[in-house]
Design goal:
Layout lengths: L15 E9 L3 H12 L4 E9 L5 H5 L6 E5 L13 E4 L2 H12 L10
Parallel strand pairs: 1-2, 2-3, 3-4
Length: about 110
């Protein structure tokens, strides 16, 4: 599969763009989107995802200078060799712990989203 950016809707010139996806595998789609945003004048592009699979060539794409920062969660462990300067890893430990506590104590899990 090869991704292609067909259209960009809206004016991004001079703005900070934030791309959010549920998963980054090879990073082809999100990198192409980031390149399109920069080509249209975005000042910075950030990539965010919950699940960082990071199959090759994801690290090369993500660390190529397209993104100011790549923000992921630790739902999938990141190997030391897959770390790069723009990578920020956020822990989901507190969220999972609080969710388990609320289920165990018959409290609202929905309240975590409010």
């Amino acid at each position: 599969n090869v991704s292609e950016v067909m259209h960009l809707i809206g004016d991004v010139k001079g703005k900070v763009a934030v791309l959010v996806d549920d998963m980054i595998d090879t990073a082809g789609t999100i990198t192409n989107a980031g390149k399109a945003l920069l080509a249209e004048g975005a000042r910075e592009v950030y990539a965010c995802t919950s699940h960082a699979v990071f199959s090759p060539p994801a690290i090369e794409r993500l660390s190529s200078g397209v993104f100011s920062e790549v923000i992921i969660t630790n739902t999938i462990p990141v190997k030391p060799e897959n770390m790069f300067p723009q990578l920020t890893i956020l822990s989901v430990a507190n969220l999972l712990g609080e969710t388990i506590w609320r289920v165990y104590n018959a409290s609202s899990v929905q309240a975590l989203r409010d």
